[in-house]
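Why run this: before we spend reagent on co-expression, it is cheaper to look at a predicted model of the complex and decide which construct boundaries make sense. The entries below are exactly what would go into the expression plan.
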Amino acid sequence: MNNVVGNNSAEHLKSFMERIERLEEEKKALTTDIGEVYSEAKSAGFDTKIMRKVIALRKMDAAKRQEQEALMEVYMNALGMLADLPLGQAALSKVA
Amino acid sequence: MNNVVGNNSAEHLKSFMERIERLEEEKKALTTDIGEVYSEAKSAGFDTKIMRKVIALRKMDAAKRQEQEALMEVYMNALGMLADLPLGQAALSKVA
Amino acid sequence: MNNVVGNNSAEHLKSFMERIERLEEEKKALTTDIGEVYSEAKSAGFDTKIMRKVIALRKMDAAKRQEQEALMEVYMNALGMLADLPLGQAALSKVA
Amino acid sequence: MNNVVGNNSAEHLKSFMERIERLEEEKKALTTDIGEVYSEAKSAGFDTKIMRKVIALRKMDAAKRQEQEALMEVYMNALGMLADLPLGQAALSKVA
DNA sequence: AACGTTGAAATAGTTC
DNA sequence: GAACTATTTCAACGTT
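The model came back. Tokens follow.
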């Protein structure tokens, strides 16, 4: 048999694909669940449009916080590069 | 007690929002998982870009696929393109 | 001639495509320009990574402001729907 | 005056940032313009999704296209797919 | 039921 | 060449 390696490769690939498709199904189920919660909320009289906007804003807040932290880290690194210079030390003493 | 209804509403709304945000977190986790499988596949030497395309094709049913391909030919003909592609030539022979 | 309509369509399509490709070229030129400004800044001793982060944060601020305004509008609409009820009037009097 | 250098640096940085943000605005405007052309095309009855694909293909050179198509076949073969597509059949006859 | 809007996903490009 | 960013594309949702 010539194609032993090829077949193994094919099997391997197939296995990856199946794992991915399985996970995507689970993900889709969650999407459905989320939609159902919105439906419930709507039935309970809430304005889902507002709900979506509020949730989006909360996500943005979280994202912004992360960005700010990342920026801070970069700053710290930049200062770290200067840490052996007098100005760098003075700056570090402010944030440490 | 004046605000019984109001408070319940607020509680109710809060509960909906929390359920949604919880589900979205789970979804995000799955997205991460999927990304990791793709990373594994990449390490194993597979071309993940192609994998993604194949998975997308598997989702799409055959009818839709054919429709898209046919429409594509029409557009490319309108532009006078396509003559130098093997797959394109085969396709052209069908529509010409 | 049979294909008058078809030809006109083809011409029309071609014209759209050319306009788009023209605009995309201009856009690409701007992308290049931006890259060059970053290069200049780097040569002048600035940390472009930090610059990018700061610019991203400024964009997020702008986006968030817009989101908040949009949310406010939705709120106002929601209140508007209640405007003929006593509670709605009381609420409106708070934001007006 | 102590901070001459610092101030110049700050001014310099500010100027870079403003140039970048200005260019990004222009770029965004072009993106909007492109979107509008697609809208026009859609109103004229064209399928913009296909238009986008065709434009992408025009960007890609022929060699790259063929390579991608060939690899695609290999993967789909590994999964035992592809038998029911007209383009696929033509392609299969090339690699089988 | 098409339309635009918006959020998510994928791809391309860039930097280290 | 690997990671990160930015852009672009795709899909879902509510709306009209």
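The helical segments of chain C are 4-43, 48-81, 86-95. Residues 1-5 of chain C have pLDDT under 50 and may be disordered. Bring this page to Monday's planning discussion.
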